[in-house]
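Exam revision sheet. Question 4 asks you to relate a sequence to its structure. Input first:
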Amino acid sequence: MPRVFLSFRKPDSRWMRDRVHRALSDRLGANEVFKSGRSIPPGADFAEILRRQAAECELMCVLIGPGWLDMRGEDGVRLLDRAHDWVRLEIATALRAGNRVVPVLLGDATMLPDASALPAEIAELGRLQFLRVPETHLPDGLAHLGDAVADLLSDADSAVQAGHGTAPTADPEPTADPEPSVTMTAHVSGGGSAYQAARDQTIRLA
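Answer key, structure tokens:
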């Protein structure tokens, strides 16, 4: 199961999106990064896979370029305002699952959308700390993004290990060695009988 899910709008900043995918795949491993165009095999139920991956990923990077917020369909309706918009569904699914969601701004001038400009079910996205991949310093930006994502995954690993750790087992209390038995000899005159003088002392007739 890929740990990182890339959510994006296809016509938005495609060349930078491809560079982000390549950089993260090189840093983390190709199998650790989910990108719908490459990670869904032919003939698979893409809707089921998208929902499952969005719900189970450890980290969703929402790639936001200049056209991400206001992109519209042929009918003039903003895509984000459609209940069945896949970008909206992916983000809402990850947020409901409690996964970490990070806005990644593509380009030097792209701004994080204000929460009030987003549908209510994904309004939280507008309040999350973002990462930026600047176009003017792209290699450095991609390296910084890779470092940040790797650190977030490392933090998640540490949290899982801490949550499943077991408390050290206390050493059992040492068992005292049994006291040696003491045999006492009694000389009984005029007849008599042997008796137990104490737990570990035996008196016997001489």
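Marking note for examiners. The chain has five helices and eight strands.
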